[in-house]
Amino acid sequence: MGWTTEEFGESHEGIVGAVLADGSEPKPAYFDIGSGAEMYATSEWWAYDGGMTRPKAAAVRASCSCGWRGPSVPVPWEELAEDGLEDLDVSRARRDWSEHIHAVERQTVPLPEELAQLLNAVEDRLFALAEDAPTAALRAVAALDRLTRRAGREAACVIEEDPDRRWEDLGRALGVGADRAQSLVTHYLLLR
After folding, report:
1. What digits encode the pLDDT tens for the residues 94-139?
2. Smaller CB count within 10 Å for the chain: N or C?
3. How far apart are CA 159 and CA 165, in angstroms?
């Protein structure tokens, strides 16, 4: 099971990945779940116990969908019970990935403090309103949706017209990859 943040989503999905003895990562492991033609595929550590012709992990590490990798931690096979990798403590990998996410957050463009406070206040008020007056909350959310679409379209137009625009720089400022940044701009350009 992977880790994500609401802000970065699939751009920074983390898992505990396996590392082979030669330092490489194994190919995804496939499992027949018994229904239909689709197979379940994973690259997570637990699939690499050496069973069913799958390779045996020599180490584990945090892996992020952006390509970042944490430090490898050897798998102490001799200390694990017969259940194998099920007893392995992978909390360090989770901490490593969390540190990676904090580093990504530090590289993003900061929101003006006044706007950040305003957004927090709107969030608090909307959730309270959803409990007390759900219809009014839906009306407010619809108004915010219209506002964010218009503001997003305006920002996307300005970005699109910038002759010095680099998708890699925009992606870093948003905490996503260049392709995702370009997709976001296109999304807002197409909104009406």
Report:
1. 999 999 999 999 999 999 999 999 999 999 999 999 999 999 999 9
2. C
3. 7
CB-count burial class (<10 Å; 0-12, 13-18, 19+) for 47: buried
- 49-60 pLDDT, tens digit per residue, is 887 788 988 999
Instruction: Compute the distance between CA of residue 159 and CA of residue 170 in angstroms, rounded to an integer.
Output: 9
Domains of the chain: total: 2
Instruction: Tell me the per-residue pLDDT of 141-155, one tens digit each, with 9 for 90 and over.
Output: 999 999 999 999 999
Cα separation, 19 vs 56, in Å, equals 9
Coil, strand, or helix at residue 33?
coil
- Of the residues 76, 91, 107, which one is the last residue of a structural domain? 107
Residues spanned by the domain of 51: 9-107
Please give the model's pTM, rounded to 2 decimal places: 0.80
- Could you list the beta-strand ranges (E) of 55-143: 59-64, 73-74
Which DSSP symbol is given to 37?
S
In a domain, 1, yes or no: no
Same domain, 96 and 14: yes
In what side-by-side order are the strands of the sheet with 59-64? 14-19, 59-64, 73-74
Instruction: Tell me, yes or no, whether 128 and 81 share the same domain.
Output: no
